[in-house]
Design goal:
There is one protein chain. The protein is of the alpha/beta class. The protein folds into three domains: about 10-190, Ribonuclease H-like superfamily/Ribonuclease H (Nucleotidyltransferase, domain 5), CATH 3.30.420.10; about 205-290, Orthogonal Bundle (DNA polymerase, domain 1), CATH 1.10.150; about 300-405, no CATH class. About 50% of the residues lie in helices and about 10% in strands. The chain contains 19 helices and six strands. It has helices at about 15-25, 70-75, 85-95, 105-115, 120-130, 150-160, 160-175, 180-190, 215-235, 240, 245-255, 260-265, 265-280, 285-290, 300-320, 330-340, 345-350, 355-370, 385-405, and strands spanning about 10, 30-35, 45-50, 55-60, 80-85, 105. Strands 1-4-3-2-5-6 form a six-stranded mixed sheet, sandwiched between helices. Helix 4 (about 105-115) runs parallel beside helix 7 (about 160-175) and helix 15 crosses helix 16. The two termini are about 45 Å apart.
Length: about 400
């Protein structure tokens, strides 16, 4: 199939009206979005790419005030919508425009179920089409207008290959008896509501080399991150663009005077940061606090169930020879054990994960929460990869970790 890299820029109401005439006749749409998230604190969709019947439509939501015409297409159960990493795009489109989705396929989830070496779009395009996608424009500022020709070409290619890739993946998923599982995951992704994240917009454990700071220095890093986050939120700018991590590290390590702080961070911010650096803190952050995960705030009974759930997950991973990313997360397991469902119907009502997982994992998970593990409940499940391939990848990951250490 010849891939068309040309595009149709849709940046007026009339252009959208004309595009919708063609899109409404489609049975398959390949969709992607570009966001401002690399530049702004509050991300917004800056471009919507839709590929249909070999045509690449680039829809500009910053210039078109009314996109309601797209809603029926996205909600139509007779039109297949293909994404790569559907969760990100669908939640963004729900957040900004209130769109709803049915009949979705996700080539990223599929790549993981098919145990491909990587799950990035660039990798799957290379795998199926022997084409290397340029990622030069990946971190472009998509909010600035006019968009440049190279940005538009880049955006068009992000959807140009999805249909042919999905058709090949669909065939392989069916051949390996993984299609129903994949379909259920797609349906769950499409049905998830957008929920605004609460709390702080950062995790100190992810700060570069945080393990190498002293407990007191970590406390100062945390206070600087909080200050930066609040400023970033007020001016709607990505935090690392307000003050970069290297400069924050330098300030904590070198303890500059107020004059130097104002030189580094500006007069007002420098003065405030200097105050944070010289303040006395009685609550340093120990190394053990950095490794806290979901579950460490559980009571004794809940923690026992959580440990049982994690053992159950390892059993599933071993039996199915699969990646952890396809299994219920710690957050999902905790939501389940706290809700304490007594049967499959109650578990399904929680809407924590897909119906396939409820049906195929639910019985053994509910049993495991009580401390009883029954592998026979899982033995009928299809292995995601061969034992040899699973062990080879596991060894490769272990070797990589050892080299990094």
């Amino acid at each position: 199939m010849q891939i068309n890299s040309n595009y149709i820029l849709v940046d007026t109401a009339k252009a959208l009206e004309l595009a919708l005439i063609n899109l409404k006749q489609s049975k398959i749409l390949s969709i992607d979005t570009e966001s401002s998230g690399y530049y702004t604190y509050f991300p917004k969709v800056c471009l919507i790419q839709i590929n249909s019947n070999g045509k690449n439509y680039l829809i500009d939501p910053l210039k078109i005030t009314n996109l309601k015409g797209l809603a029926p297409l996205f909600a139509d159960p007779n039109i297949l919508k293909i994404f790569h990493s559907a969760q990100d795009d669908i939640k963004a489109l729900k957040r900004d425009f209130g769109f709803q989705f049915t009949n979705v396929a996700d080539t990223m989830i599929s790549s993981r179920l098919l145990s491909m070496e990587q799950s990035s779009l660039a990798f799957v395009v290379e795998h199926y089409h022997k084409v290397s996608l340029s990622k030069v424009e990946q971190k472009s500022n998509w909010e600035i207008r006019p968009l440049q020709t190279q940005q538009l070409r880049y955006a068009a290619l992000d959807t140009a290959y999805l249909e042919t890739i999905w058709l090949k993946m669909e065939e392989e998923l069916k051949r390996r008896n993984l299609y129903e599982e994949a379909k259920s995951e797609f349906e769950f992704t499409a049905s998830e509501d957008y929920v605004e994240k609460g709390g702080e917009g950062f995790h100190i454990a992810k700060f570069p080399d945080i393990i190498n700071f002293t407990p007191l220095e970590r406390r100062k890093i945390l206070e600087l991150l909080r200050y930066r986050d609040e400023k970033a939120k007020k001016i709607n700018k990505a935090p690392f663009r307000v003050f970069n991590n290297d400069r924050l590290s330098q300030a904590v390590k070198e303890q500059p005077n107020e004059e130097k702080c104002m030189e580094w961070f500006g007069k007002k911010d420098g003065s405030e940061i200097y105050k944070l650096l010289i303040s006395e803190y009685s609550d340093p952050i120990e190394t053990s606090e950095l490794s806290k995960r979901h579950g460490e705030d559980l009571n004794e009974e809940e923690d026992k169930k959580f440990q049982n759930a994690k053992k159950w997950r390892l059993r599933v991973m071993r039996i199915r020879r699969m990646e952890h990313s396809l299994l219920p997360s710690n957050k999902q397991l905790i939501a389940i054990l706290r809700a304490n469902p007594q049967n499959i119907e109650e578990l399904k009502a929680l809407h924590v994960f897909s119906d396939w997982k409820v049906e195929n994992y639910g019985p053994s998970l509910l049993t495991a929460l009580g401390g009883v593990h029954n592998d026979s409940m899982l033995s009928k499940l299809v292995s995601v990869r061969s034992k040899e391939a699973f062990l080879a990848k596991k060894r490769k990951k272990q070797n990589h970790s050892q080299k990094e250490e």
